[in-house]
Write a structure and sequence with these properties.
The protein has a single domain, classed as Orthogonal Bundle (Arp2/3 complex 21 kDa subunit ARPC3). Helix content is 63%, strand content 5%. The chain is built from ten helices and four strands; from the N terminus they run E-E-H-E-E-H-H-H-H-H-H-H-H-H. The strands form two sheets. It has a two-stranded antiparallel sheet. The protein has a two-stranded antiparallel sheet with strand order 3-4. The longest helix is centred in the C-terminal third of the chain and has 27 residues, at 184-210.
Length: 230
Amino acid sequence: MGIFGLELNSRKIAFILIFAALALVLHQFNFSEIVGAVLKPQPYFTYIQFIGPIAGGILGAAGGVFAVLLVAASSFLLTGQALSLPVVVSAVTLSFAAIYFGTKRKEAAIVPLLCMAAFWLHPEGIQAWYYALFWLIPLAASFYKQNIFARSLGATFSAHSIGSVAYLYAFNIPAIEWAGLMLVTPVERLLFAGGITVFYYAVNTMLTAFSSRVDFSFLNIEKKYALWRA
């Protein structure tokens, strides 16, 4: 069975459901405030920032997006939260992070470059033009995707580019606010990239350890990122 180019079978569907359930649990725990957001109550990043992107690595880009959107839809239905901007932005940014993480193609870096252009086209954004230079990182990282930390860094900055532009246009965030984030953003994204890397090692280690007993041929397991092998 195929959906939008995603080939599904019973085992892959079961794995996606298990993965989505784990991601949904992590989505209920806050990691840090979204600094600079002007919404009330203050929106938060949750621990799904660590596991969402790696869905693209394990399930492929299409499978990763499917899993991320499944988590977003489940959270929306189960928690009864309003369909607010943070909810939509979280789903979109994590979907693109999964695409970036799950593909070796350099074309995935086009989205952050388009976001850079959109940032500079905004009257407030052009005054803080230097902030958008962060989104050259996914382009640079696309040449080193064999390095898991570089891939994680590119994925989280891809998500960052989309979220930043969405909030800029939605709330007309002034240039001085972006200037104030120049020291915050690198720390925040390095933490996210580190978390993505750790989770990817953990998932690959677990899948590799059980691969002698369970047929995981329908998944993209990168055994070089497994800390223990059966």
